[in-house]
Amino acid sequence: MTLLDGVISEKPTLFYAAVLLAVAYPLYSIVYGLFFSPLSKIPGPWLTRISSIPEANALKEQRRTQWVNSLFEQNPGAVAVRTGPKSVSFNHPDAIKAIYGHGKGHEEFGKSSWYDAFSTTGESLFSTRSKKRHAMKRRMVAHGFSAQSLQSFEPYVDLTMAKFLKKMDKFARTQEPFDIYFWFELFTMDVMGELALGSNFGVLEAGKPARYSTLVEQSQRFGNLSGMLPFGKASVRVLSWVPMPYVQRLWKARVEYLDYARQALEKRFQEDRKQVLPSGKPRQDIMQRFIEARDPETGRQMDFDELRAETSSLMVAGASTGSVTMNWMTYYLCKNPEIKTRIVQDLEAMFPDNRDGANPLPYTRLNNLRLLEHAEIECLRLHPPIGYAMPRDTPRQGAEICGLYIPGGVAVGVPAATIGRNAAVFARPSAWDPDRWADDAADLATMKLCFLGFGYGSRQCIGRNVANQFVIKMIASLLLRYEVELEDPGLVLGTREFTIQKPDRKYRVRIRPRKV
């Protein structure tokens, strides 16, 4: 007699009950999810009622945002679609305030467990799910993103810009077509190195990307995949045990990237950060502000692991999103020469003594050019870097959103790429029209509410002003210095999702010195 036989003979009722429960519970969950859950009435593929596989597959195929958009297209008029057993995406202005607004107490929609996959060596401003810790972190570093800080960062942006324009001058002389998005990526890598870590990566001068740029993308994809799978939410290491080449490649990239961030931060600590600028003032950068930051209430400072997590987030948030926004601005301005001409006229009027763009353009003045600002916003409306929903969990007692009851503990959100093209909010939603943001006849309040290019509410991107600074300075400098045109005037760019939404193909531009 085996040990198992003894268990069965002594307690057959308990044994068979356990077997029955093991079989019945999954079956019950499937039947409940398919037919009886309050979410079962929300449209979406039937498999999303019981599995996250469709969304995970869309992520793997680099079309997660497009997949969610297609669900709304297949269900016209729907305010929400089901994207998983316990996840729902909304496409209505009312959902933005309900989900991302400043709820209190039991009404609070907390960050979902998806964010846990992005807590690396510690919680960052982006990944922390605790409202209290987020508020503390934001208090500690808010001064590092103030208007005064922007002015102290600007010399580093100008130094990097000068290197970029030197490369562009060579292309202007030969007028050979080239991949400008590639150079935008090199620029943002170096400028974020300067701003976040106190030194650039030398990629502009080398003319080739740093290894870290590939690692950033793959590490983020691993976090995304882990965050949407039940076992991955519990621990990112669980997903790393899956013996699939695709998963293993992403996991190795994550490990290597975190080690890269560690080495960069250690170097940052070892070097003297009190460098003196030509102006005679001591050097300041974002990481210096993070290092010096203290919680005004407790006096607490960040430890090394926490700073390392913030370093990882900064490099992703600044470098990748900035370069892709410059790309779309260049593309749409080339496709709409009348808007481009008006912006150039604004620049010439603002800088009559710098009509060839030979000198740096101060952001404090560029920030007053409304058409240039609206061109950027319109690109971010059509092509937000993060197109899918930033998930929040419904409160324990559930919530009513846009007339739909959603049980507690369900991940809900509003995809920026979907609401940004909502025809009930934006006239001609797929058209690039910067002037819509200055149209007094339009419902500007609702349009601004539905612009999620930088998020919404207390969790919106704290680095928005930093990104705006170098994006606006870049585009203004290019337009004032060169004539820019597409090699193929008939080019139609689409998007492909590499965690952030990038162009679906390579393309080239020609530039030549602008006649003044």
UniProtKB/TrEMBL annotation:
Q: Which UniProt keywords apply?
A: Heme, Iron, Membrane, Metal-binding, Monooxygenase, Oxidoreductase, Transmembrane, Transmembrane helix
Q: What residues does heme bind to?
A: 461
Under InterPro entries, the record lists: Cyt_P450, Cyt_P450_CS, Cyt_P450_E_grp-I, Cyt_P450_sf, Cytochrome_P450_monoxygenase
Sorted alphabetically, which SUPFAM superfamilies does this protein's record hold?
Cytochrome P450
Q: Which top-level group of life is the source organism from? A: Eukaryota
User: Which spans are transmembrane here?
Assistant: 14-35
Keyword Transferase applies: no
Q: Which cofactor does it need?
A: heme
Q: Name one Pfam family in it.
A: p450
Task: Spell out the molecular function terms from Gene Ontology.
Answer: heme binding; iron ion binding; monooxygenase activity; oxidoreductase activity, acting on paired donors, with incorporation or reduction of molecular oxygen
Family, as annotated: Belongs to the cytochrome P450 family.
Protein name (database record): Cytochrome P450 monooxygenase
